[in-house]
Write a structure and sequence with these properties.
The structure is a single chain. This protein has about 280 residues and is of the alpha+beta class. The chain is built from 7 helices and 13 strands. The strands form 2 sheets. Strands 3-2-4-1-10-9-11 form a 7-stranded antiparallel beta sheet. It has a 6-stranded antiparallel beta sheet with strand order 5-6-7-8-12-13. α4 (about 120-130) runs parallel beside α5. The longest helix has 18 residues, at about 165-180.
Length: about 280
């Protein structure tokens, strides 16, 4: 349905990953071998924190309904800015219209959120889930996607205090509402959430067949594995990437995030935790 990447580490120009890798996000917008749809040309978005923003800073956003491969502004912007943490997303619309307010990532205060996947039969469950959003947050829903509703529902259920617990409640509610409307497998996707300091990447589906999700190995390990690869020297020791699918073909660079798992990335590296795993 979509493809996305998230970066955290030393300040980096987004173009390094979004444009310049072998299988960059822009390349995946034209040809996504592991995606549900090979072409993701229904808009894109970039969200980034400035170097001194930290957990309390408001991230900047750039959204466009142009195909990512055809937007000169994306090329200019992604080569001009540097950020220690940024999200990027290319969209394959699955029903909601192609418009800027439906482009990911979504923002609230210092939080960013993006999603690959969807809620099955969203038209049937949209009313119940939207009405569960806190009234103070409802005016911030600008578009018509299931992803934006899920984000604001997670905010309602405590995302700012405990992202894993809030996402657990959000997905459980989406499944309960879906089942009440006779939807057998309501939730599908990978989700990225950040407060500007920590990154949470979730992989889950009601059917147990989630969209793909990978994260990079530690840079020191990669530089030892591939000392001849000049490109790896562009990354600092704390650089990490979480992606819908690998950005290159080098074995061992990208590690698959297991089904029903949240990968938490903070200053000490990755920590995998079960997420809504079957009992």
């Amino acid at each position: 349905m979509c493809r996305w990447l998230a970066y955290s580490g030393e300040p980096l120009r987004p173009a390094t990953l979004v444009l310049d890798t072998q299988h960059s996000l822009v390349a995946q917008s034209l040809n996504s071998p592991l995606g549900a749809e090979p072409v993701n040309g229904d808009g894109f978005g970039l969200g980034w924190y400035s170097g001194d923003a930290g957990a309390t800073g408001t991230p900047a956003l750039f959204h466009s309904i142009e195909p990512a491969w055809n937007d000169q502004n994306l090329r200019e912007l992604s080569r001009a800015i540097e950020s220690p943490l940024f999200f990027s997303h290319v969209r394959a619309a699955a029903g909601p219209p192609i418009q800027q307010t439906n482009c990911h990532p979504f923002r609230y205060e210092n939080w960013l959120f993006m999603h690959n996947g969807g809620l099955a039969d969203f038209d049937a469950v949209k009313r119940d889930l939207t009405f569960a959003v806190d009234p103070s947050l409802y005016p911030h829903i600008k578009g018509t996607t299931d992803s934006e509703v899920l984000f604001h529902l997670a905010l309602t259920l405590g995302l700012r205090d405990d992202p894993v617990a809030a996402m657990t409640k959000t997905i459980r509610m989406a499944e309960e509402v879906g089942h009440a409307h006779h939807v057998p497998f309501p939730v599908q996707g990978t989700f990225a959430v950040s407060d500007g300091t920590t990154l949470w990447a979730f992989r889950y589906s009601s059917q147990g067949r989630s969209r793909t999700l990978f994260h990079s190995a530690d840079v020191a390990t990669l530089q030892e594995m591939y000392p001849e690869v000049e490109r790896l020297r562009a990354f600092g020791p704390h650089a990490h990437v979480v992606v819908s699918e690998p950005l290159n073909d080098l074995p061992g660079v990208f590690l698959e995030v297991p089904e029903s798992t949240v990968a938490v990335l903070d200053g000490s590296g990755y920590h995998h935790r079960p997420f809504l795993a079957a009992d």
